[in-house]
Amino acid sequence: MNRKTLFAVFSMAYLIVAALPAAAQDTGVYVGASIGMAKAKQVCANAVNCDADETAYKAFGGYQFHKNLAAEAGFQYFGMFGRNSQGISTTALDATVVGSWPVMNQLSVYGKAGVYFAKMQSKPLEEDNTGFTYGAGVEYALSRELGLRGEWQRYNNVGGGSLGFNTDIDVISAAVVWRPR
């Protein structure tokens, strides 16, 4: 495990959480939740009756420092890849910088890049690792407080070590974003 990357993930998450009370009076704080599909092709590379697609869930929060720049942290549950209860359970904490650009009055596109700390568990093996994550999406503002997102995000080289393989995990999701005013 790379200690510098782990430190960066937790530092970013701490700064976001520490800024929430002061920022709650400002317009920059937001929270959200998403549901989508995670795909980890390398998990099932040499297996029969293996499922590389799973339902993924994410909770996230962030702070918008500028109309085009935000910091975001989240917890991602990718699901149980493989064969039912004998698969590989995977989760990740991530911290990203998000750059957004308005396309129309209520519609914007965005890109994100950052780091993650992931855990893969398969009886009896467990592997933690850190790496890079990036993604892109669109957000539609239903109102000043509520928005909808469509997003693709990749987590590079999750796994390794005792599991004997690394896999890129792609997540396509839909999210609800709430910005308290």
Average pLDDT, to the nearest integer? 87
CATH architecture: Beta Barrel
Into which percent range does the helicity of residues fall? Answer: 10-25%
Taken as a percent bin, the fraction of beta residues is over 45%
**Number of domains as seen in the coordinates:** 1
Count of alpha/pi helices: 1
Low-confidence stretches: none
Radius of gyration (Å):
17 Å
Major sheet description = 8 strands, antiparallel, barrel
Question: Strand tally, please?
Answer: 8
Specify the overall morphology.
elongated
CATH-defined fold name: Porin
Written as H for each helix and E for each strand, in order along the chain, the element string is HEEEEEEEE
Write the layout of secondary structure elements.
Blueprint: H1 3-23, E1 29-39, E2 53-66, E3 69-81, E4 88-102, E5 107-122, E6 125-141, E7 146-159, E8 166-178
